[in-house]
Amino acid sequence: MHRLRARASVAVTASLAALLLSLTLQGAALADRDEDYELGVEAYNRGNFPIANRYFLDAIKEGNSKAIVMLYLAHSYAAQGQYKLALPVYRNIHDNFKGTAEAAQAGDCVVRLENPAAYAAGRSDKTSTTFYYRIKVIFPKAGHPAVSKPTITTVQKAVTTMPRAIYQILDSGQVKVTVAYTAKNQFPNTVSGAAILSGKTICVFEKLVAGKSVKPFSPVEIREAFLMQVGQVVSDCSGGLSRDPDFHNAYMIDSRELPDGIENTLPFLAPPANNAAKEMCAALIAGLSGGNSKVTDCATKNFPKTRAWIINKLRLQN
After folding, report:
1. Apex CA 219: angle with CA 213 and CA 223, to 5°?
2. One domain for residues 200 and 267
3. What pLDDT is stored for residue 65 in this prediction?
4. Distance from C-alpha of 275 to C-alpha of 53, rounded to nearest angstrom
5. What's the pTM?
C-alpha cells in the first residue's frame, strides 16, 4: 500500500512538473512573440523594413496572429515594394477581421495597391493633385460644342485600368491630360490624330475638324491614341528608355527576325526609321498599359525581349 501511494505521489509530482514546464514554455513563447512584435514596430518606425519584416514573421510563427501584427507585416512588405507579398496579407486581414479598424485600413490598401487610379477616383477630396485629377477638359472655341461625357469617360477608364507602376510614373512625373473637342481648340497647326504629346501633357481630341469636314474619333481610337502617348511620356519620365544601351541590345536582337511586310502594321520601322526604337518603346508600353490595337499587338508579338526588358526596368511584375 505504501509503495502504491509513493508511486502515485511520484506520478503526481511528475505531472505537476510537466505542467509547470509546459506553462513556463508557453509563457516564454508568449513573451517572445510579444517582444518580437514590439521589436518589429521599433524597426518599422526607424525605417528598417527588412528587419521589421523578420520580427513580424517571427511573432506570427510564435502564435501572435492579431490583426495589428499582420497589418504591420503587410506594411513592411509594401514599404519595400514587395506588393505581391503585401496584397494577400492585406486581403487576409480585410476578410478575417471584419468590423475592425485594421480591416478597414487593409481594404483601403488593397484598392490603393491594385489600382491607385481607382483609389484616387473614389476619394472624397476632389482637390487631389494626383494624376487622375490632372485630366482637364478644354473649353471649346469657334462655336464648337463641349466635349461629350463618353469621351471623358473613355480617358478616365483608360487611366483607372492601367497598371499601378505605370500610373505611379505618370503621377510622380506630374503628367497632365487635356481633352478637347478638336485640336483647333488648342493648336493652330493641323493635328490629324486623336492624341498628341505636348511636353508632359497628353492632349486628346474628340473629333478631327478640317474646314467644314468633321470626323469623329471612335472611343477605341481615342483610347489607343491616348495610350500611345502614355507610352511616350512614360519613357521620357523614366530617363528616355529607348536610349538605354540595354534596351538597344534587346531591340536589336528582336529586330533580326522580323517577318516580311511588318512595316505595313508598324510604319515607323520603314526606312529611314530614325525614331523606330523610340516609337517601339512607346508601343510596347502602350500595350502594357492596356492597349490592344494592331500596332501594340504586333509590337508585343515581334519584340518579346524588348518587352521583357521594359517590364523588368519599370518593375511591372510587382
Report:
1. 115
2. no
3. 83
4. 45
5. 0.66
